[in-house]
Write a structure and sequence with these properties.
homodimer; 204 residues; mainly alpha; Arc Repressor Mutant, subunit A; Tetracycline Repressor, domain 2; 2 domains; 9 helices; DNA-binding
DNA sequence: GTCTATATGTAGATAGAC
DNA sequence: GTCTATCTACATATAGAC
């Protein structure tokens, strides 16, 4: 692909991220994306064929951009992964736009026949697997933990990051995304290693 | 309001919850809601005036339905609130429809000028306040904890419940909503009372 | 209170000129 | 590669008959 075309592609993708983040993928229109990219909606369709295809490329684009940002620095495994997730939360607190695209599109994806659904199913499956692997390494060092607990903890760590993003987007001054994510991840990791008292015990 | 009219209202609201849950509030149409309620879209508008107003009444309806379900049994304060949240997670695992409406609409609400946004801002503010109050009672019994930690923990508990719902909706067999919620809430509550080691200490 | 008919707006996609 | 023009489809909302 020619460099000029490649730049146009990138510009359209950036515009699409912006618009899908602001309006959602259903409400965001090709015309608005085109305007931000400096062309008409017909031009956008020339590059991406259809709105659905553009959406899928937006989702793939961020993964690619994330990897590029890490340079050849691969995502760490083992206990370092937890620190990496906390660093991600700190980074996300500086880029509400990207956070909003993912929050809106991931929730939209559970609706009927949404084109982004396979992407998010796969994404969460992979991420949960990574976190489970990190827990296995950690527990191997420090003791034995049931498989159900590790599965629950892995899902919970991703969940708390997503859920805090939603509250933070709604009211940025009321939620400290970075600090709350760090506290929650730490609490869940510690909860796996040292179960602690049951909730019931706190009542009377 | 006459009883027959009231029943029609309820029937339309049920249909709207169903459709907004399946398609989102943007993609869900008045025609589909009307069909499920046994009338035409003009009939729906006769009852609710506009689609936007219907959406807002759907959001209010669930709160009202939740309260009715609890009978005159008010939402508990203090440490019992944590057990109540766990019970809610168990109940939610039996009603994917309701969970989906809230997951989809809450994320949609962060988009530009979404009519449901004030509702969700308010909802989270109130819920965080309830959880913070529960922590204060708990910490009063068991020791001193910083305000920032309590705020972070309150947001995190709501966040983990929401985030687990998303993963569970995407892949119900891969995530145990009830069990994972219980584990995460317990871990975060214990994290407030007994901080435990920092994440950094687990590396090397 | 519900219908049919219609007004009005806007979306995504296509065709063909330049 | 980008444009204008147009097609087709479908949405919300209104008007007025029954």
């Amino acid at each position: 692909m020619r460099p000029a075309t490649q730049r146009k592609h990138a510009k359209i993708l950036q515009a699409a991220m912006d618009v899908f983040g602001s309006k959602g993928s259903t409400n965001g229109t090709l015309a608005e994306i085109a305007e931000q990219a400096g062309m008409t909606h017909a031009g956008v369709l020339h590059h991406f064929g259809s709105k659905q295809n553009l959406l899928l490329e937006v989702l793939a684009y961020r993964d690619q951009a994330d990897v590029a940002e890490l340079a050849d620095q691969h995502i760490p495994g083992g206990p370092e992964l937890f620190l990496h997730l906390v660093r991600t939360a700190f980074a996300n607190a500086q880029r509400p736009g990207i956070v909003q695209v993912y929050t809106v599109l991931s929730a939209e994806s559970v609706t009927d026949e949404h084109p982004g659904r396979p992407y998010f199913e796969d994404r969460y499956r992979v991420l949960r697997g990574d976190v489970v692997a990190a827990f296995r390494e950690l527990c191997g060092q420090q003791g034995v933990t049931s498989m159900e607990t590790v599965d629950a903890a892995a899902a919970a760590i991703l969940a708390v990051m997503d859920g805090l993003q939603l509250q933070w987007l709604l009211e940025p001054t009321a939620v400290d995304l970075a600090q709350a994510s760090e506290f929650a991840i730490r609490s869940i990791v510690n909860g796996v290693l040292h179960p602690g008292p049951e909730l019931r015990s706190y009542v009377e």
